[in-house]
Amino acid sequence: MQKFSYTEILERAQTSARRADWEQLSLDLQLLLLGDESTQGTALSDPNVTPALLNLAMQVLESGSFQERWDIAKVFPNFGIDALRPLIELLKDEEADPESQWFAIRILGNFHHPQVVETLIEVLKTSHSEELNSMAVSVLATLGSTAVHVIEELLHEDSTRLFATQALGQIRRSQTVPLLMQVVNDSDAQVRAIAIEALSSFHSPEITALLITALKDVAAPVRIAAVSGLGFCEGRDLVKHLRPLLFDLNLEVCRQAAIALGRLATPEAATALYEALKSEYMPENLAIDLVRALGWMPIVDALIYLECVFMTTSDEGIQLEIVQTLGRVGENLRSQATAILLACPTRTPTVRQAVALSLGQLGDPNAIDPLIAMLADADEGVRLHVISALKTLDAEVAYQKLGQIEAQESDLKTGIAIALQEWSY
């Protein structure tokens, strides 16, 4: 591959600019500023050439395609603070392409400079573009402590309070806690929700109390944020506060309450989930979330409740979810889960297939003989799942047992013959 000198690349870049060939110009600038030490060092050492290179980079940023802008953005940090002025001027240009301004904001995030913070604040105050404001918020968040005191000022203005709260929510440092607490009762539900969600990253009795209070907020997004946060808190009375949310009018609130109780993983939390599951008004999709939450709990109580629900429900979807959940329990509960699966009456082929699969996943050798007995099932899918489970449990022991039973007169003879035939596949 031919290697061009610094001078040749520079001349080609200038020609590309005159032709408005932004792709080639972008490639040349990357070679000059991001290439090997010889070209990079030469380009940045000449005070007469550097401004010209910056001007060429701005041309690509202003007029190139999305990909060309994405690529050229990589070279701007090499110019240092010299890049700030043209980038800020681009943001002030009311005729500029919004996409180029979006990239300008993104590039400014590379410079931890007071002028950057001031510029981004001005964008939030004056821009009506959701995309620009969102990027400005993200960049402010990356500046961290440098921007916190300026963001505080934005909390006091109605037009910028939402953006300020979003930025504080992304920073997630302890110094933002007092500021977020200032807006937990804001009239804007979106502001309240963001503040509650951000505060839930910090753990203290005061914050836990705030989250509990927010459970009664009229806005569902706020309740969702509070419920989610409480799942990571500690407290003896949390179940009492979370249980009513399992019957909230908003299904997502109910779902998050189930997840939060699952994370608490206490006998009281398991009881709350079980009692909700017994409700005749519980929709199937939410019941499945409750089953999963019980399955996350590493306690025997949860398994007992799952067994009780399986025995009393006629809903195949819920039964199937219980069987699949039992197949994923932790190692300390696998023997109990195996016993439950073997004891539960399975009414449909789909559930019986799931039982075989879960027994294989649990890895308890005590399931080998019961699985072999399932080879008498009339459903081919069940038999194939049984074979797969036997191979997973202990292929050698299972194969020997199949051979021994095949030699005997048994109702299983046909199923075992099929199993042995399929074994090698």
Summarize the structure.
This protein has 425 residues and is an all-alpha fold. It has 26 helices and no strands. The protein has helices spanning 6-18, 22-34, 37-45, 50-63, 66-72, 84-92, 98-108, 114-126, 130-143, 145-154, 161-171, 177-181, 189-199, 205-214, 220-230, 238-242, 251-264, 267-277, 284-296, 300-312, 316-326, 334-343, 349-362, 368-373, 380-406, 413-422.
Give me some keywords for this one.
425 residues; mainly alpha; 69% helix; 0% strand; PBS_lyase_HEAT; ARM-type_fold; PBS lyase HEAT domain protein repeat-containing protein; phycobilisome
What do you see in this structure?
With 425 residues, this protein is an all-alpha fold. The protein has 26 helices and no strands. The longest helix has 27 residues, at 380-406.
Distance between the termini: 51 Å
Strand content: under 5%
Proportion in helices: 55-70%
Characterize the largest beta sheet: strand count, sense, and whether it forms a barrel.
none
Average pLDDT taken over every residue: 89
Ranges where pLDDT stays below 50 over 5 or more residues in a row are none
Q: Which word captures the global form?
A: flat
Helix-strand makeup class: mainly alpha
Count of DSSP-assigned helices? 26
- The helix/strand series, from N terminus to C terminus, equals HHHHHHHHHHHHHHHHHHHHHHHHHH
Oligomeric form of this entry?
Answer: single chain
Number of strands: 0
From the alpha carbons, calculate the radius of gyration and give it in angstroms.
32 Å
Keywords: Antenna complex, Lyase, Phycobilisome
InterPro entries: ARM-like, ARM-type_fold, HEAT_type_2, PBS_lyase_HEAT
Protein name: PBS lyase HEAT domain protein repeat-containing protein
GO molecular function: lyase activity; oxidoreductase activity
